[in-house]
């Protein structure tokens, strides 16, 4: 199965035989207006693709390919709630989560927008209650510490956003500490609990399915910790659950079964993919961090990107162009590694967020019609704060042997106000490094005179395609736009590859096998048939304890 066996696909293969030999430096030499030709903007955000190995013809052919794949219709199906997540027979409606309250969208005969806003109002009441110091723990002390327990999509988005937007706290939200616990092995929670006051701590158990063992194990540890702490106060478990736990899930019954009373439930819907859920009540920690208005501003930014994506022609559509240049790199230039390089410490968790968004969505080897794909799909993604990565893996980007495409993400303005001279200088340093690195990675050492006389170990071959994403400022709105843009990029690539980006069957077998191994780890190997490596490792572990 080759989705590129079309007219535009064939032309792109042909075109790649020429462009594959081109150097980005020579493309700049040939066209002094390259930046003007290949940079694209929406208010607040600019995407510069001029350091990609593309020409106008490349983009024209890629847009033609998107038309051949009926991308416009797919976008409409996404927004209209068609069941495009076919293997799970449901729509993917993250765009509805950030639609304004006056919109209506009927799915299966029922409007989904009004219930979304009802849930947001419910969340607002809860957030305001905590911020006002009115949510009291078992002993009557106000809650001032929140611990979000979740994993994957029920952790990464809120974790990233709370870090990115921590400058946007309000007077009341600043009084609340927020922590994140995700690791199954207990290392996050065990080191955290020692530092917390149980009488003032509220746990948010975030899990779409409410069956994820990682989350339930941490939640159980939290509950037992509270019960132990409360022994002398004779508080009963029901009161602990009522005063110290909130559940956020798409499966209310399981929250009840676990013990969280209905009054402490926040809901979202099956049609919200886990990795697309930070816009739903899963975003509770974000609202607790920056206040409900800040959360709504983030939704508004994402909605602005949704509107741009839905209504803009492909030739100037940011998510479409970002996606199509990725397709060009992956499927026509053979590049299968992608570095995410935020030049902004506030975006330190963006790489791990995008690892899940991109690799869990598009790390697929079968098409929507269950044939094996005959082409590469999602590349390996990884990343780090750019300036730190310069002292770690940039050596490989500059002088290693594999081609890597790179996203540079930064903002023009930071540290406003008269008293920030030193920090403003640090921002200038940061920007100069961001620009220097993308310049060298794309253009190589042609950027300095006489480099051709240097010995090979001092040469920089360049020709690593780079995109630069420039926010005017990092605000809840522009942050929302940035993340929504990546979501849509992932969707566009899935359409071209003819894969379903909204399921994740590849994570299931590991859960089943791990459950099956527990008896052997507990010393009983009856009925467990094991390969010699797994058996040997279990025996070794068991002899050590
Ligand atoms: O196992 C993968 C996964 O299902 C992710 O897709 C999801 O974001 C994560 O686990 C957490 O799932 P839940 O929110 O149901 O606990």
TrEMBL record:
Q: Where is the active site?
A: 360, 391, 511
In the Enzyme Commission scheme, what number(s) does this protein have? 5.3.1.9
Keywords for this protein? Cytoplasm, Gluconeogenesis, Glycolysis, Isomerase
Where in the cell does this protein reside? Answer: Cytoplasm
Q: Which reaction does it catalyse?
A: alpha-D-glucose 6-phosphate = beta-D-fructose 6-phosphate
Any one GO CC term of the record? cytosol
Q: Which Pfam families match?
A: PGI
Name of the protein: Glucose-6-phosphate isomerase
Q: What gene, per UniProt, encodes this protein?
A: pgi
């Amino acid at each position: 199965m080759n989705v590129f066996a079309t007219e535009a696909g064939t032309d792109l293969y042909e075109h790649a035989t020429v462009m594959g030999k081109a150097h980005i430096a020579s493309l700049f030499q040939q066209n002094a207006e390259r930046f003007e030709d290949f940079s694209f903007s929406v208010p607040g955000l600019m995407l510069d693709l001029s350091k990609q190995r593309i020409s106008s013809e490349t983009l024209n052919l890629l847009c033609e390919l998107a038309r051949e794949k009926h991308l416009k219709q797919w976008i409409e199906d996404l927004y209209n709630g068609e069941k495009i997540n076919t293997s799970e027979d449901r729509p993917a409606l993250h765009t509805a989560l950030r639609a304004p309250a006056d919109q209506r969208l009927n799915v299966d005969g029922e409007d989904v927008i009004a219930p979304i806003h009802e849930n947001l109002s419910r969340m607002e009441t809860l957030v305001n209650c905590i911020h006002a110091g009115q949510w009291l723990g078992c002993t009557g002390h106000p809650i001032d510490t929140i611990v979000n327990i979740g994993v994957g999509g029920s952790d990464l988005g809120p974790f990233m956003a709370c870090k990115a937007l921590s400058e946007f706290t309000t007077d009341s939200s600043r009084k609340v500490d927020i922590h994140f616990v995700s690791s199954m092995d207990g290392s996050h929670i065990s080191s955290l609990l020692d530092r917390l006051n149980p009488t003032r701590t509220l746990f948010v158990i975030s899990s779409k399915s409410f069956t994820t063992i990682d989350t339930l194990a941490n939640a159980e540890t939290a509950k037992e910790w509270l019960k132990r702490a409360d022994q002398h106060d004779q508080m009963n478990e029901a009161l602990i659950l009522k005063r110290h736990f909130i559940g956020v899930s798409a499966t209310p019954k399981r929250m009840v079964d676990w013990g969280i009373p209905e009054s402490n439930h926040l809901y979202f819907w099956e049609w919200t993919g886990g990795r697309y859920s930070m816009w739903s009540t899963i975003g509770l920690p974000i609202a607790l961090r920056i206040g409900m208005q800040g959360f709504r501003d983030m939704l508004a930014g994402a909605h602005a990107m949704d509107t741009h994506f839905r209504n803009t022609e492909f030739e100037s559509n940011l998510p479409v162009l970002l996606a199509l240049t990725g397709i060009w790199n992956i499927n026509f230039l053979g590049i299968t590694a992608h570095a995410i390089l935020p030049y902004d410490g506030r975006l330190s968790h963006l790489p791990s967020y995008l690892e899940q968004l991109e690799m869990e969505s598009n790390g697929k080897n079968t098409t929507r019609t269950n044939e094996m794909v005959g082409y590469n799909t999602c590349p390996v993604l990884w990343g780090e704060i750019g300036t730190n990565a310069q002292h770690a893996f940039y050596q490989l980007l500059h002088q290693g042997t594999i081609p890597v495409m790179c996203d540079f993400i930064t903002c023009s303005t930071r540290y406003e106000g008269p008293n920030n001279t030193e920090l403003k200088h640090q921002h200038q340093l940061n920007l100069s490094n961001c620009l220097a690195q993308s310049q060298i990675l794309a253009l190589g050492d042609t950027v300095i005179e006489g480099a051709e006389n240097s010995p090979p170990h001092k040469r920089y071959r360049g020709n690593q395609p780079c995109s630069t994403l420039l926010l005017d400022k990092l605000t809840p709105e522009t942050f929302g736009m940035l993340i929504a843009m990546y979501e849509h990029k992932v969707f566009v690539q899935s359409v071209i590859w003819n894969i379903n980006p909204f399921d994740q069957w590849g994570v299931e077998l590991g859960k089943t096998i791990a459950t099956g191994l527990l008896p052997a780890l507990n010393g009983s190997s009856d009925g467990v048939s094991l390969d010699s490596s797994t058996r040997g490792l279990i025996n070794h572990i068991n002899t050590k304890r």
